[in-house]
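## Example record

The block below lists the input lines for one assembly entry, exactly as stored, with component labels intact.
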Amino acid sequence: MAKINSNYNKLKTNYLFSDIARKISEYKLAFPEKEIIRMGIGDVTLPLVQPVVDALVKASTEMGNKATFRGYGDEQGYAFLQEVIKEYYEENCKVRLSTNEIFISDGAKSDIANFTELFSNDNTIIIPDPVYPVYLDSNLMFGRKILFINGNEENGFLPLPDKNTKGDIVYLCSPNNPTGAVYNYAELQTWVEFALNNNMIIFFDSAYEAFVSDKGLPRSIYEIEGANKCAVEFCSLSKTAGFTGTRCGYTIVPEDIIIDDNYSLNKMWLRRQTTKFNGTSYIVQRGAEAVFSKEGIAACKENIKYYMNNAKIIAKTLEESNVWFTGGINSPYIWLKCGMDSWEFFDLLLKKAQIVGTPGSGFGKCGEGFFRLTSFNTRENTVEAMRRFKEFLREL
Amino acid sequence: MAKINSNYNKLKTNYLFSDIARKISEYKLAFPEKEIIRMGIGDVTLPLVQPVVDALVKASTEMGNKATFRGYGDEQGYAFLQEVIKEYYEENCKVRLSTNEIFISDGAKSDIANFTELFSNDNTIIIPDPVYPVYLDSNLMFGRKILFINGNEENGFLPLPDKNTKGDIVYLCSPNNPTGAVYNYAELQTWVEFALNNNMIIFFDSAYEAFVSDKGLPRSIYEIEGANKCAVEFCSLSKTAGFTGTRCGYTIVPEDIIIDDNYSLNKMWLRRQTTKFNGTSYIVQRGAEAVFSKEGIAACKENIKYYMNNAKIIAKTLEESNVWFTGGINSPYIWLKCGMDSWEFFDLLLKKAQIVGTPGSGFGKCGEGFFRLTSFNTRENTVEAMRRFKEFLREL
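Predicted structure tokens for the full assembly:
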């Protein structure tokens, strides 16, 4: 008799975004004449840049021609893409990788979730709260123990390890989703040293690295000495180049990570991927290659600048209104202290200013009392939303 | 201290294709003037058909335009693709599905391997031998018990359950890889009844269904009564439409499968995919949609006919030479009895006829004494290879 994985019982259904959608529908029905501005969007809105579109079209055409058709590629990705990612790391943050350490995937979400398979279910997983829900759920599915570490106003939502931080694997996300907070060099160094001293592995989610403009902040965990012995880095073109619907990411698994003097995490991941994955579409990999061309990088930077100018407008409004917040400078997310229950703030903001954001409590209990705004809307809407927001705060 | 998943120790490194590659290189070095014909290819060789290329180009262009750009799609796929697959099932084999039962993926390999996560590690998995290695390895990685059931000359490599078939989940692949053998209605009915009587789940791999031309053979397990209560079907466009490098598959999870009166496998898979997967590329899904258009189906059928004519040439040669074989009629694979050790036959065939095939023992111990040829080469090469093969057998 087939026996089910009963760990699925431990998963909570996350109603966050469906609850938000329901509240918007109800409001629209009651006040059809009001214009709602959505500042809760967690998805890019600008189209793919032209060099990427050209590469996708070219690769699609190649696939229709016997001489240039491609069948199965290596599961870990094409060398042409690994090579440009390797160069990107060198130029971007002076990190030297071997192409064997770069695994191409269909996105960071799959890899972040699947990578845990290389570890026994008998591990304690350290997860910052508030958090991207995949970290938690993908480990609950395997029945692993979870230890939350708290983000809060005091630590700027950048928790550091202390004597109570007892676990085996820790997830770090910087720039953070949902808080937009970014660890500096010293803070990441603290984490890396703690991991090395305690034989811990760091899963570093750098999906938002392209939004870091401050030269004094790390964009890769491998900028920290020793990280090549304890950290796996997950990155994605979703936010860097608007690939949320095109699907391509990459995971760095250093050859230097050896567990129990015997297990190469790099070789284990290669074994996992060659067995359970068949590679990312050739067409998409050619599109991804174009992201890293001179023209591609320049065009993607323009798009990021557009979002970041929106973020600046939001951040300026909050500063002028004396609202405490994180993010908005090196991240498309702004995480603000709303001074009341997150959902109460959501309801008020919708009712009084017709602005939709995301209640912080939806990302974990430490998110209660906070609220997320994003910069993925248009300039015009962002400006209008902030005009309304200022007025809303004055009348609060 | 991070603890590794020690089940990885149980995995054997499969050297099959690297051993073959090495032997070819050595032979080429020794006899550079000889022309080798590769009949071991397990990958398609014809390019994508024009309607698919047109759809890929159109979708790529859409992604560069603000008005038609797409960000995140539903993890289970776009409705436009689910709809045409639903219609394909109705027209192809009179099977009625709900679109909620159709999950789009980046290929059958990922889904076949990942689907096991919904089940406890405390299950016994029944796997036919010889076998596609993913079934075995993806279960060994979770430490599950394996029961092999033997394919052989007597059962035509189509094993059926008997009183010793004690397990919880069974993998069936029909048309089979590597043997090309196809279960008929009565045989699949036997499996379905056995599964229902024993609360077993069938994982049905139908990746080669498009190669079935015989109207008297099932192309989907759901043509069998009761299968909607016990079988999950994995299919792919890899061989149907030459998508091995483009990457798109689909998995059918019937809403009627309820385990322990409580667990809907359909809802569990939706939970798994929404948590650990971010959907297949929009561009690829548009290409896949075009496969199922009238023009797409007609063009793909032409390609399959081309491969199947190659298969016929191989089958005819074997019949004329009185060699026992399976496949080649409703499958691109031909599995022949070589009358000696599989690797010995490989070496002889390379040396005497400069033909490369795949030793059956590489697919499991029951494959010993057998040999796989495929129809994915050109017409010209297939004809020449069979001319040589006939001569080779005469001189053996």
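Chain A touches chain B through 77 residues (CB under 8 Å). The two ends of chain A are 60 Å apart (CA to CA).
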